[in-house]
Specification:
This protein is mainly beta. Helix content is 0%, strand content 58%.
Amino acid sequence: QVRLVESGGGLVHAGGSLKLSCAVSGRIFSINTMGWYRQAPGKERELVASITRYGDKNYAESVSGRFSISGIYADNRVSLQMDSLKPEDTAVYYCTAALFPRAHRDSENPENYWGQGTQVTVSS
């Protein structure tokens, strides 16, 4: 019943920019944190950036200063502005949310949900 739908991936030359967006929908009571992970071929999935409902942001060291995350919790949306892209940023990017579904609004811990992923390819 909870869905995360990403958009905005694609192919870009090194030094270029892309913006990823994610919409979270469904029977949601509240969202604690939204963020983005990525997984390159042959590598483990890694955190790129996250933002809490209170506005606290966290970035991977490899993207700090180049990527910027923003979240509109009133609309259950999160975006990732990616500038100065490098070939090593090539990966499938996944939107994620730690939230309480309405059916589990009294749970002690939030549940983690994932989008289907969107491909970002940076050519050299």
